[in-house]
Input
Amino acid sequence: MFKIGDKVVYPMHGAGVIEAIEEKELLGDKKQFYILKLPIRNMKVMLPIDSAENLGVRRVVDTGEFNAVLDILAQEKGTMPDNWNRRYRANLEKVKTGDIFELASVVRNLEILDREKGLSTGERKMLNNSKQILVSELILAKDLGEDEAVSLVNAAICSH
Output
């Protein structure tokens, strides 16, 4: 169970800070929710406490993991299916895990692929969403500004 002030990652949405824990009534049932404030787009998200674990909610990475993420971004492109549809599904599964290392590999691979031959509309959207999720976690992990976090990600990918 998390508490107010904790920095957590909500897979497919990004990282945020638990701003409040509230009880709401939905369809006659009272449920408790984490109220997450996401640093990007200044969004607030309600996350049901009883399903947080099943949704893969976890704490934001520490400094050592942060550096490992930058290392992954700096690596060469990994192997991916040639068929864009298979590649899209494989990448989506990686993003859904909520694992920052899987997410970093998706961002790196799609960025490199985009430079090499361009991306389909669906893959470009996945790249933008994945990058935003990654950046939101880096912002909270190191108390960075959004521009600073985006620059770090871009610099790491360009370093090879």
